[in-house]
Amino acid sequence: MGRMMNVRWIAAALAILVLTGACVQLGRWQLHRLDERKTRNEVTRTNLAAPPAPIGEIVGPQGVVGDQHAWRTAVVTGRYDASKQVILKYRNVRDKPGFEVVTPLILPDGKAILVDRGFLARQSSELMPQHVPAVPTGEVTVTGRLQRSERGGRTTGGTPEGGTARLINGPDYAKVLGLDLYDGYLMVTEQKPANDPALGGFPGPEIDDGPHFFYALQWFFFALLAIGGLVYFSRQEARSDKSAQRQPEVADRPEARAGAPD
User: What residue spans carry the region label Disordered (predicted)?
Assistant: First the structure.
């Protein structure tokens, strides 16, 4: 029985140590995410403060909008191709569900950039917006914030189907629309001629440290709890062993034997 209890205690101790190690690693992972967020915030602040520039000067000939370009203000001039407009479904802006209207802007050099023209709040339970503001004709100059192509992991919806999609992804759109698109898109902040007022704008970026530090503290606290539990149960086990050792000693005393019946 004692050997079985000893094996059970060792197994429990190992499980607690594994749990403690996992909590410590999760805490370190949250601190790593905090460092990444601080780095991203610094890039965002720098890009927000930078003056507007032509998109080609910002992203270079590769035409790829990366994390280092997020929220950078770019200026493009071209003509919208209304025939290849895409309505984004299941979008949410300022806690309001709705749609976003994405239209390719054809540039003078033949390349195109996806322009998120604005947000339309969903009315009742409509599956598609009842009215989409018309696309301006003729030459248009758009000033906006660059964003990298959206990637939803296992979530599908980056490829337009029937004029709708769930994500904005330059390479996926290019396959369907037949355009030489930048890998990324532009969120309108200003347009000449002016954007239709029915299209709502977008909030700026969240520049804060997020909850990662407090999540890290929680995981480290759980690790301390696990170690504390191991120490407590170790002491309890030691006390049980001492009690078990004292009982035979009492039984072997002469007084105990003399009082025993024949």
Answer: 238-262
